[in-house]
């Protein structure tokens, strides 16, 4: 009931702009925040109850005292809710029938949005290349035999997707190529009859009237069955695959070679609808194009020549538009009515002009459509992003942890947070994603205009110092100080839940902040050298970022933060130990720490089964740093284990280790680069043979292993591995058996000085005899093979024909890239290499015999490489590698 009435109020406020409604919603939010604090405190006390001592009657931890305090707070909250409910009747809200609402409320807003196919091409600047690329796709003969080809154009609001589609639609080449070209704007979601009705009208020039859905479909079928058509579906939001397949079954009735252009803001829609290999991602204008568009809209005839100063002011104004055509059009149109240099300067300097632009111009409604489409959970996640500065590159993991700290999703289901992030990315609220080597998005940015939208949505609840004036009100909930000290006006607030980037010049001021902001869920501190014991009073705190500070120790009081989920201690170079009761942080899920400076771990660390993300662990630096001290069950993502020292009881500790129980761990690095790990090669081999790895591992890298053998059956249970790297294992002669790994895609062998053969056919393993492996099972999914700095390598197996790779390489049907670097004993490649049609890149460096034999144009067998598009062959070694062994392409290709 509360949610329904809040939705009524929000809709009414948006439609009418009522200050009374706004004030009522503000009061409701404030009391709900208080209720949330109370419930959180009740749950915390309930967890502590078995440990509480009743005999200290006047203690603040006394159960009777706490019960009395909570009962009083509950009574106060109920009284406020009753008053708010009483005020509801005086608002005279219209009751919206939410049962009749479409699945996404945005459909109501977009009923008023309609587009047409006409556009004046002379008014469009900067999209000529985009237009030609779309037309090239439309006229490409390779799609002539398809029943219907769907080309999505994707980008966030205001980039000009509709304008680009209009330019393509009206091009003479397109008009002549198709028997029928037609246009329809269909933003409807979950309303098949409305969509079919619009299609009926665009194909027949008649209204569907009271015809049934079957009659409408039949008429559309008759209208297109003998025609090769182009249909533009503008502004699509519905990402239901079932509804799209139903529509496609109808559209396929036209002649082969028909085309459909879809414009959308959603990558989900593009993925569901598109039939081409890749959607067309519409980008921003260039700086020159943006300026040219602005000039055409803002300047009257001869105005620029008569007042040159306007050019400089105008360029500064255009730079704030982020190369977005719609923003430039709105700004240019507003400035066209302003003649004097003073008016232009005031527009540039006045922050209120931005607000006027966003509210009164056409920009905000267009941008806000995407926001209105979001479900409530994603709306609050997006609004929280207003706390980051413009052009800030934020970490996906960190943002998800911040959302989790605010309770936007259940901590037990971190995957939901990842899904929220990816959905905002697919809806183009985020841009410039950067991926790691495994294809996972690590960082993103927000476009300046989208950042303005986030600030507009967040309103007075969120504040970013430097982006807005510090007009602190009692509505303020989340604050980002961006490295500044807290202003005095902030100290008067009571409900702050986020305090990001706070810089502390005087340690005493931190004590004062802690005593004032007891509702904090998120705290990030800069420029501190000590953490006060009073931080233990922040019982609601979920996220604590102390990274890049000069702290030497943490107070034991920090272990009273029983709700703490994320603790970031990265780049704290003087931190040598954790508090003795650290294991009491029973809800800690994510720990980032500089392991190099720690001398030991607190007892009980291995029992912290709530830890999900640890990233690093060092074995052998202290009494409690055996491999059996690694927490079990819930570690996920990536983990790096550094073996600093081979401990006295290393084998026994490996037997006790529970690493294998972390079934959500997908990436593991085992580093043996510590100076004291080369004590006993046999002991080292026994230790890792007992160290059972998680079965769901996909990525494994072994660095600096100092033994001469690895257990041949080490990978028996790791059937999901897709990438393996062995690096700087200089003494190793025998590797684990690899051919049994059915999903292996990448294999990297680098700096293995003693290795002569990758596999030894005479060696048996648990899965059977290696010689029995069928040729068609020979690395069936391998895509990348890199062999670098293997000075003794003679071949793949001992039975290889001379110093060569085996003939079985012809079975690597998916191999895309082969690199052979500094392997001087290899003399030949198998002739069967000609059968590898997927091979795109071959690099050979520092292999004298191979270089002479295969280098163009005089190499004896260079003809067997003719089918490979990119080859780089030399007897020298001038080559560069990324840290992750990725190849940096040579500037010259043969």
UniProtKB/TrEMBL annotation:
InterPro entries: Apaf_helical, Leu-rich_rpt, LRR_dom_sf, LRR_R13L4/SHOC2-like, NB-ARC, P-loop_NTPase, Rx_N, WH-like_DNA-bd_sf
Organism for this UniProt entry: Chenopodium quinoa (Quinoa)
Limits of the NB-ARC domain: 128-303
Keyword Nucleotide-binding: yes
PANTHER family cross-referenced by the UniProt entry: DISEASE RESISTANCE PROTEIN RGA3, PLANT BROAD-SPECTRUM MILDEW RESISTANCE PROTEIN RPW8
Keyword check for Repeat: yes
Domain Disease resistance protein winged helix: 387-454
Name of the protein described by the UniProt record: Disease resistance protein RGA3
Span of domain Disease resistance R13L4/SHOC-2-like LRR: 512-786
Gene3D superfamilies for this protein: 1.20.5.4130, Helical domain of apoptotic protease-activating factors, P-loop containing nucleotide triphosphate hydrolases, Ribonuclease Inhibitor, Winged helix-like DNA-binding domain superfamily/Winged helix DNA-binding domain
UniProt-listed Pfam families: LRR_14, NB-ARC, Rx_N, WHD_DRP
Biological process annotations from GO: defense response; response to other organism
Molecular function GO labels: ADP binding; ATP binding
